[in-house]
Design brief:
By secondary structure, this protein is mostly helical. The chain has 2 domains: about 1-70, Ankyrin repeat-containing domain (Serine Threonine Protein Phosphatase 5, Tetratricopeptide repeat, Alpha Horseshoe), CATH 1.25.40; about 95-145, no CATH class. About 50% of the residues lie in helices and about 0% in strands. The chain has helices at about 15-20, 25-35, 50-55, 60-65, 75, 80-90, 100-105, 110-120, 135-145. Helix 1 (about 15-20) runs parallel beside helix 3. The longest helix has 10 residues, at about 80-90.
């Protein structure tokens, strides 16, 4: 059995997408252990991390991230939720060294996400000449470094 085989009628979807959407932790873990791709993209739903987030299956996020889900930190900025990004950074701290994503978070006024980036990469603040979403946020950014 191929853990990456498409589900009937789901194009590029697969068993891991369904397990992520329904919160089936143990099934997802077995699939991941057998090589299911946590970054496979379903045309209608995104990847497994987005599916789990959208379906309010937050307990799935650390498991998926631990198997490499979340190929693009930048993509997750648009959800404005910190947990998927935090889970990715915990598994691979080098993902925080992303100037483009940091700059976008700052321009969008995502203070908690900016703080998260700075926990892992404190020098990022010195590499951008950005402004915040508001005057208050811009002041806060300047105070960070």
């Amino acid at each position: 059995t191929d853990p990456n085989a498409p589900e009937h009628g789901a194009g590029r979807g697969g068993a891991l997408h369904m397990a992520s959407a329904r919160g089936h932790f143990e099934i997802a873990k077995i699939l991941l252990e057998h090589g299911a791709d946590p970054n496979a993209y379903v045309e209608s739903s995104g990847d497994c991390l987005l599916i789990a987030k959208d379906r309010k299956q937050s307990h799935m996020i650390p498991l998926l991230a631990s198997y490499g889900a979340g190929s693009s930190v930048y993509m997750y900025l648009f959800t404005e939720e910190i947990e998927p990004i935090a889970a990715m950074f915990r598994v691979d701290p080098s993902l925080a060294n992303n100037l483009t994503a940091f700059d976008q978070a700052a321009r969008s006024g995502l203070r908690d996400i900016v703080r998260l980036f700075l926990m892992y990469e404190p020098d990022l603040i010195k590499q951008v000449s950005t402004w915040g979403k508001t005057a208050e946020f811009t002041r806060w950014l300047l105070d960070q470094g």
